[in-house]
Amino acid sequence: MKDPRLARLARMAPYRRLRSFDPSIKSLIQDTKKRAQRDEKRFSSFSEAWEQLVPDKLLASSKLVGSRGSTITIEVDSSAAKYELDRLLRTGLETNLRSLYTGPLTRIKTKLGTPDQSESG
Fold first, then answer.
1. Torsion over CA: 40, 45, 48, 51 (sign)
2. DSSP string, 16-36
3. How, if at all, do strands 71-76 and 107-112 pair?
4. pLDDT tens for residues 60-81?
5. Which residue, of 17, 62, 75, 76, has the fewest CB within 10 Å?
6. Cα(71)–Cα(7) distance, rounded to whole angstroms?
């Protein structure tokens, strides 16, 4: 007769073995590439709408920094430009951008950025 403890060990052996581990970063690179392509597609749609609707003066002092979920963050280089952009967004620019932008958009967040090092002396 077989010992029931040995039979139990034999049944558990496939679950208790060390699984092979793949140390390569291939899957990470593929995921990053997919995310980058998706974001590029989304941002190009938004940037086209942004360039079409925002006045040139504000366009020169603002840049798209990123998005998280359905919130897009715009960085501006001065307080005056931030105030002007916020005012425009509240008075209808955000609604117009939503109508032209194909992706999800619930909020446009503006933040004050630091001036580039290359511009200062």
1. negative
2. HSPPP-----HHHHHHHHHHH
3. parallel
4. 899 888 888 888 899 999 999 9
5. 17
6. 57
pTM: 0.63
Whole-angstrom distance, CA of residue 73 vs CA of residue 70: 10
Fold of 28-112: GMP Synthetase; Chain A, domain 3 (3.30.300)
Among 84, 39, 106, residue whose Cα is nearest residue 66: 39
Residue spans per domain, the chain:
28-112
Tokens of 13: 């052996």
